[in-house]
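Risk register update: the risk of archive-format incompatibility is retired. Evidence:
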Amino acid sequence: MSALCEAVFVRSVAQHVDRRMANYVWLGVFGMAGMFHAAHAVLPTSFAMCLCMLGSAAAMAPPVSDVKRHMRNRSVPAIGAFALAVCAGWPYAGLVAVPFVLEEMLVKGSGASTRNWRAQRLAMLVVVGVGATVIALGAMAVVDSWYYGRPVVAAWNQVAYNVLGQHNGSSTLYGTEPWYFYLKNGLLNANLVMILALCALPMWILYYVALKQTSRTTASVAGERAMRQLLDGHFLLLFRLLPFYLVLVVFSLQAHKEERFLSIVYPHLSFCASAALSMASPLRAWVCAQLGRRSRGGQSRAGFLVLAGAACVGMLRMTALVKYYGAPVRAFMELPTSNITGLLPLGPSIKGLRTEQPLHNDLDRVVCMGGAWYWFPSSYWLPRGYHLQFVRELGGVDGHLPGDFVPAKASGSVQKSTSVERPDFNARNEWEPSHAIELSQCDYAVDIEYPMREEPGLARSSEWQQVGMCHSVLDPANTSVLARMVYVPHVLAWMAGQRQEWGQMCVYERRNPIA
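Archived output:
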């Protein structure tokens, strides 16, 4: 899905903005480590990112005065995609649509003159926006309300809790970060592309000044007409740059920050970088003209070389994510399974295996995690017959942990299991004892042990034995900054004086199984 949305986005840039910029955009997205993990993540932000790409692709088309053509080619598909991103994806993705709305109301576009074009645009925005929102939000509310057993609008609950503080809740309960968090994160996930994207708006302003100065010195009618077209096109470019800056500024002002929040504008980040590269050559020519010097060419080749270098660094970051932090997926594959197909021992919901039989006479085996609970890849990686639980004995468990639904066999139906009101949940991220069990109740445990840290573990316990192989995971607290940012082979890290410390993620089995 993400690849299709990226293709539509890049094609729209080529069709409505500039072909060379489109080539820059796809190369920037291809080598961006942020897109590497956001594109396939099963998260609301990733779904919203894909829909925002579709909405922005439609918004790339320049406005026209012909209302029917404007609605068909631009407004209806853009509003529909943005509304679906907000209602069915992530409510805060609506920020990406703000520049589009401003452009609709400020830019008349080419075509026949229409006196009341702004009133028509406003009516179109309201009608299409409300219609798309009602359809998307209504469909989501019907499904959610059936499962919860009461009227529920999940998108509203998200905003009410995190922004309005409903039920004494607040997003700050789940951690806060400094204002520059997204700048650091962007440099990590987009490296040179992030730097270029941050330069796009200042370069746009400088380019606007250069165009205005040049237009004042143009004497011919044809020259004035050409400069007017350049200024109009440059003004439209501003609305395509603003989504990235708007999201970056608004989210940076919030106390609670997460890496995934910025993913909704990763494609726009690449677009801003491509715009900066495209403006570099004419700006250099203008500056050289002001200084009385001659400007050299080669801008296109230089732009591709810059983005190719950024892609190489991005691939080193992607490799680091897989090599340094891919242990949880591999570790859970060490759990014993009766899968006789020879395929990966994945759960039925990801693969639908009919030949895999439950273990131990259909009795659930309990797999426990402690302080490393957030490393759990998902239930898709648990074979049939296994059930995840949390324990405090392994350290680091605090706050409100996830809880289980009431089994459908006990409640009578799935709908009753999902709709039951339970007292063991709170909105203040407070510890709930019933969401953890004792270590003695576990059949298996997945734990990480770092040699450089003094933490409780199971490796030296006489009650537990290792199952299969252990898998290395980087110890970020005791590893040099460069050696944990990008992939550095052990030999090169040692030669460069970049220390790398490793832990081991292992699966343990109780020596005397619980009867």
